[in-house]
Amino acid sequence: xxxxxxxxxxxxxxxxxxxxxxxxxxxxxxxxxxxxxxxxxxxxxxxxxxxxxxxxxxxxxxxxxxxxxxxxxxxxxxxxxxxxxxxxxxxxxxxxxxxxxxxxxxxxxxxxxxxxxxxxxxxxxxxxxxxxxxxxxxxxxxxxxxxxxxxxxxxxxxxxxxxxxxxxxxxxxxxxxxxxxxxxxxxxxxxxxxxxxxxxxxxxxxxxxxxxxxxxxxxxxxx
Length: 223
Known about the structure:
It is a single chain. 27% of the residues lie in helices and 20% in strands. By secondary structure, it is of the alpha/beta class. The strands form two sheets. It has a seven-stranded parallel sheet, covered by helices on one side. A three-stranded antiparallel sheet has the order 4-8-7. α1 packs across α2. The longest helix is centred in the N-terminal third of the chain and has 18 residues. It is globular and about 45 Å long.
């Protein structure tokens, strides 16, 4: 298997493992990409306690919803409240401009990401096996040149990092919890990769890919 699975006894323990990995990445410094959602939020708060000095970090967002930064759906807002506000020294923050139209925000983010290599990326897995805002069979999965693209989605448009950028990350870590993710996790890590399972397509081409799981999320895997 091309992913190192780290199965914890509980969701809290899996989040703790993710928090330790985030804090370690912050100590090393460099470019870190984080995702949104309720699953990693406690891990971000724990990471801020474990390593309050992020002054050597440039922080990016694996994806962002096209909403203003104060909107409760904003990944920036979640990371701001759960991580950044708890730090003693903040990183340089590169925010995708979710308040703009998706294509404009994606163009700006793509330009800002030019020449950037991600050192550590924390990603989630949705029940449909999407990761970042790369959804099953979406045209964004075919993008080979850009670093960020706009994605049309039923609830709200998004900006997402592309596969080439994420695959070039030195370390890629997934965090997935709960039995409702078990099928998606199996397809991502045990079945043949393909565009119907976007999480199966994100693997570090030059470093380590690993996944923090609890027993519920790993229930359909042979581990």
